[in-house]
Amino acid sequence: xxxxKSEKAKFxxxxxxxxxxxxxxxxxxxxxxxxxFIPRKVxxxxxxSITVFVYLIGTFFLGKLEDNWMSYLWHLIxxxxxxxxxxxxxxxxxxxxxxxxxKVFARSIQETLISPVLYVAMGLLNKTLKKxxxxx
Length: 136
Fold this sequence. Notes:
Blueprint: H1 5-30, H2 40-61, H3 68-94, H4 100-114, H5 116-135
């Protein structure tokens, strides 16, 4: 089964959108010193929303993946990561402020989920599997 040009364009558009969201998030939210007045809970909601938005972009623009396990892997990584950072956020909201090491851990999980690297890896894996299936 050959990769259609529309699938390539769809993948590229998804990649561009994820890069834009990722870049805007870091430039306008995390690295913006003027936003220090934003309450912690609002920042949590903003970070969670951006992570979910990137997940939805990837889900839509990855299109039909070659194997079901690839789609399952995409969803598993994101749902598990969102579950972890949601748990940490709920602890921070309702019980006590989390320790710095836990915050760094949560940020690294969120970084992995919104980074375009995971999207590109899934696309490359999909392309490789499609090539190997068409040769067989």
